[in-house]
Amino acid sequence: MPKRTDLFESDPDDTREAIMKATYDALSKHGYADLTIQRIGDEFDKSKSLLYHHYDSKDALLVDFLGFMLERMEGTIPLEEAAAADDRLRVGFDHVFAEILDGDREQFNRAMTELRAQSAHDDSFREQFTRNDRYFESRVQDIIEEGIQQGIFREVDAEQVASMLVTIIQGATFQATTSTEPDLDAVRTELDAYIESRLLDDD
Amino acid sequence: MPKRTDLFESDPDDTREAIMKATYDALSKHGYADLTIQRIGDEFDKSKSLLYHHYDSKDALLVDFLGFMLERMEGTIPLEEAAAADDRLRVGFDHVFAEILDGDREQFNRAMTELRAQSAHDDSFREQFTRNDRYFESRVQDIIEEGIQQGIFREVDAEQVASMLVTIIQGATFQATTSTEPDLDAVRTELDAYIESRLLDDD
């Protein structure tokens, strides 16, 4: 998830964007369980009746919020900044781990874990999170396939390795938000060792 | 998490055990969000007043339930069944993935994800889940250290690799319970590839 300042203008004109920003702020402040439309309204500069006009329920608003976050995220992860596939993977994972560990985003990250756990019993949440997963997985898969073509990576099953990498990111996010002593520095270091031993071609 | 039949006697005498069994059944049936002491009582053969006598709140009961599950789990994961460290890891992961993918446990697994997500804003849940994590991590670390001593594994940082393996299991569990299309067969296969490329000594 990108930083708040990368996601929103400081004073958005567009109503939907203003609602999304208020939702982000209310989620960061109250978490999912204590979130109400009223509390989103408290973060909202325009008329609160607009919220009720646009959304039937808190959960309908949140599903739209998840879709919005996905749109905005596309492009903010710097997977393209390096030429060689192994460097692109490392730059991308550095970015993701920095966001997971960013103290300023702690409350928001915890709220996202709560939201995702709602997927356990809510199909529309589950579908939206699955779309997010598939988006990241296909981006990672593209990079691995490129690495194979560049002769940097071994001829692995790129889809299978991408599934594993997305699973690791999810496990790290889950741990960061639900453990008293997440050791994510160890996981980040081991991720490099995994990429090196499993992907890098020795020749 | 072990199977229900491995965890509980069919008709437990002990009051705490009977409460734990009722909690397991109520969680499987209703999930966390819709769980009430009343609903746990509905699964309970003895006097419901016992529940209120033993626990102040639903969450106090659930923290005790998590501790109980950890006690019972110790020993049910068949990490000891093989002699060679790499086989012991594989047998253990086969067992864990079979539990994650077990259709009969789907509702219970989802409830556990919801419970774990509560840790995002509840310290006593977070501490109990962290204890569970540390228990598994130390078991896995022991096996890796043994593998190094047996000359089967490379001289890796066993704690770091154990952190990664626990992170992968958590990510897989999270995905199985919150995604519409978790590809855990791919993750299980890739886990073997990771162990082979990262841990197995070529000599």
From TrEMBL, chains A, B:
This is DNA-binding transcriptional regulator, AcrR family. GO terms for molecular function: DNA-binding transcription factor activity; transcription cis-regulatory region binding. Residues 36-55 bind DNA. Residues 13-73 form the HTH tetR-type domain. It comes from Halorientalis regularis. The keyword Cell division does not apply. Keywords: DNA-binding, Repressor, Transcription, Transcription regulation. The keyword Transcription applies. Pfam families: TetR_C_6 (PF13977), TetR_N (PF00440).
